[in-house]
Write a structure and sequence with these properties.
Distance between the termini: 38 Å
Number of domains: 1
Length: about 180
């Protein structure tokens, strides 16, 4: 199947149309991709956001955004389900629709409608920009952890995520986010 690609200028004109005001789009690999929402997948992003929010209340080291926070990554436009940006890199979050800096951490909750090839492209671009990625697979109850320059780690429901040097002392038992 042929994929129709477009330019960033066409993307921005498209998303700024009045009929698209309440919709969320990404620009990945030259394609305009609508970001679908479902209650099932969004609950996992919300749970991770909640745990990170509590951590950041105690450690004022950065900013947290939800699914409506967009970021520019090598000319593309991404809207991770959860993102963290350290205050050391950006003292105040950008007020632009898409932050001109890639986040330090991007959490992508993978839904059944996500295209695997576009997800892999996003992960590669995030890594090239220095972003850590947590790809959350709710149906499999797994998280793939991608860190620049390191092999991918695949964690299951009995494992614990940790924030590493980026979020020192942060841990999250995956059983807490995959609880039914």
């Amino acid at each position: 199947m042929a994929v129709q690609t477009t330019t960033i200028e066409s993307f921005e004109a498209f998303v700024n149309r009045p009929e698209n005001a309440d919709r969320l789009f990404e620009f990945v690999g030259g394609e305009i991709v609508e970001v679908p929402t479902s209650s099932f997948t969004s609950q996992f992003g919300a749970r991770i956001l909640g745990y990170l929010f509590i951590y950041l209340l105690q450690h004022s080291i950065g900013h947290l955004t939800g699914a409506d926070g967009g970021f520019m990554v090598f000319g593309e436009r991404y809207a991770p389900d959860v993102a963290f940006m350290s205050k050391a890199r950006q003292a105040e979050l950008s007020q632009e629709t898409y932050n001109p800096l890639a986040p330090d951490l991007a959490v992508e909750v993978v839904s059944p409608t996500d295209q695997e090839r576009l997800l892999r492209l996003k992960i590669a671009n995030y890594l090239a920009a220095g972003t850590v990625v947590w790809a959350v697979y709710p149906k499999d109850q797994q998280v793939e952890v991608y860190e620049p320059g390191k092999p991918v780690r695949i964690l299951g429901i009995d494992d614990t995520l940790d924030g590493g040097e980026m979020l020192p002392g942060f841990t999250l038992a995956l059983s807490a986010i995959f609880a039914s």
